[in-house]
From TrEMBL:
It holds the Pfam family MDMPI_N. This is TIGR03084 family protein. InterPro entries: DinB/YfiT-like, Maleyloyr_isom, MDMPI_metal-binding. Residues 8-138 form the Mycothiol-dependent maleylpyruvate isomerase metal-binding domain. It comes from Nonomuraea solani. GO terms for molecular function: metal ion binding.
Length: 241
């Protein structure tokens, strides 16, 4: 895979180009995130990006599982009355330092994040995944383009890598799953042991959207086989709680 820190910067830039062109009416338009406007989504992205800086500074951010959604809703509600210009400036300031700061951390560093401690590269991957998913929430209701890119490989890796955790959270024994996913450019991406008894095949974009809970497995073009393939799609998640 290409450098995750460079790709995180590129994802920020792609979303920035969208946000910079929004009208006042588009900022207040309902997003695809239930109960949130486009502005609310960007408030959430700015807030969580500021938490990255706090984690790098050594703050403890781990929360009990189950509190995360309620906390996110509460803090967005408390800060949603911000002008689009100020909000865009805040998000830009929050994202500006993240890739370089994460890249500069010493090897072996572990950073506090929501449910666990993550390496700088994995935290960068979660930030890419969250910005990509929320870009979908912003652009889809507005009918704006947000093309899929090869950066999805990081997100697909994250979804596959965290399958054991996802099985555990859902109380499912699970098992090894091999994924053969078609990249936006047509290449094949492989994750896991090709000899695994369960497989998932299909578009990487669908795999990532299922993992972001923006697409149901039944509505995707993904195919699951073996004893745990369908279970994997049911629990798949691109996030750590």
């Amino acid at each position: 895979m290409t450098d995750i820190f460079d790709d995180l910067q590129a994802e920020y830039a792609q979303l920035d180009a969208v946000l910079a062109g929004l009208t006042a009416g588009q900022w207040t338009h309902p997003s695809a995130a239930a109960g949130w406007t486009v502005s609310d989504v960007v408030v959430h992205l700015a807030q969580t990006e500021e938490l990255v800086a706090a984690s790098i500074a050594g703050d403890e951010l781990t929360l009990p599982r189950g509190d995360v959604d309620a906390m996110a809703e509460a803090v967005v509600a408390a800060q949603r009355h911000v002008t689009p210009a100020d909000l865009l400036a805040r998000w830009r300031a929050a994202t500006a330092a993240t890739p370089g700061a994460l890249r500069a951390l010493p090897k072996g560093t572990r950073l506090s994040w929501v449910a666990t401690a993550l390496s700088p590269a994995t935290l960068a991957t979660t930030r890419l995944a969250e910005h990509w998913a929320h870009a979908y929430d912003i652009t889809t209701p507005l009918g704006l383009p947000y093309p899929d890119t090869a950066r999805l490989r990081h997100i697909a890796w994250l979804g596959h890598r965290t399958l054991p955790y996802a099985f555990q959270v859902e109380g499912i024994e699970g098992g090894p799953v091999h994924c053969e996913l078609t990249a936006p450019g047509g290449d094949l991406w492989h994750f896991g042991d090709p000899a695994a008894p369960s497989t998932v095949t299909g578009p990487a974009a669908d795999f990532c959207r299922v993992g972001a809970r923006r697409l149901s497995p039944a509505d995707s073009a993904l195919k699951a086989t073996g004893p745990h393939g369908a279970q994997a799609l049911a629990v798949l998640r691109n996030y750590a709680f």
